[in-house]
Amino acid sequence: MRLSTVILPIHRWREGQKTWQRAEELGFHAAYTYDHLSWRTFRDGPWFGALPTLTAAATATERIRLGTLVTSPNFRHPVTLAKELMALDDISGGRITLGIGAGGNGFDATALGQEPWTPKERADRFAEFVPLLDRLLTEDAVTERGTFYSADEARNIPGCVQRPRLPFAVAATGPRGLKLAARYGQAWVTTGDPKIFEAGTPEQSVAALRGQIEKLGKACADTGREVAELDKVLLTGFTPDRGRPLESVDAFVDFAGRHRELGFTEIVIHWPIPDSDFAADQQVFERIATEALAQLR
Predict the structure, then answer these.
(1) What are the φ and ψ backbone dihedral angles of 129, each rounded to 5 degrees?
(2) Using the 8-state DSSP alphabet, how is residue 118 labeled?
(3) pLDDT tens for each residue of 170-195
(4) For residue 297, what pLDDT band results from cuts at 50, 70 and 90?
(5) Beta pairing class for 30-33 and 2-6
(6) Torsion sign across C-alpha atoms 230, 197, 30, 166
(7) How many CA atoms lie within 13 A of 30 on its CB side?
(8) What is the spatial distance between Cα 277 and Cα 20, in angstroms, rounded to a whole number?
(9) What is the rounded CA–CA span in Å between residue 33 and residue 246?
(10) By percentage, how much of the chain surpasses pLDDT 70?
(11) Beta carbons within 8 Å of 249's beta carbon, 6+ residues apart
């Protein structure tokens, strides 16, 4: 099992770079950030762009993988995103993972002045976005006419450092999204079942996650792929466990062990932010980063 972290882009880089460098020092497999224009309770505070932040992190680190959790079509277009990702993959020396999802009805959904999309339209757009982005990152020139997204002789030369392209970690729980994960993903991402976040139990969450993995397995079988080929990533903080796994090393080991048994290969924990939903003891957090995985072997 791998252990990674999410670092929210809320600090000016003079201060923020220390966090990314510390994540590498602690031995995290990857450090991700959210790709939003603003987000939830952080909306009225500092919030910087994901791709420039990752570019800076790439130049400030050497080994740790970097990526988004997650990018969505809410304010992105495949043609411009592909160009930026190709450059970022080059700058990082091939250390980028693109977490990608259909998006939701948060602030991003209306920031460009549009009406929020219905769930069906989000799914329709995502179903066009991912295949076109795949082509743009693997072909030198792409022309495509879609309902929502098009490209006209779009060039991406020389392509990604990682071949045939940088990996996609597809966030999905519905049938159409899982089909995209099975076909285009090198990893699958979930935050659990949002319907039981408020009033559910950890046991119910485990059962819901087991069901999601079973559905992923069916989607893979339908596309002729082995589900074992996909990494399975759990972004924590959105299950009924909330912040309890970060209360102690033992609590995290218990949490991680239960989810490893389900088949998860990577767990992502939020870098502590005082006075927020992601508040946690920094010393305990760092002990989890350096000690917990050894107890799972």
Answers:
(1) -60, -50
(2) P
(3) 999 999 999 999 999 999 999 999 99
(4) confident
(5) parallel
(6) positive
(7) 25
(8) 20
(9) 19
(10) 100
(11) 284, 287, 288, 291, 292, 295
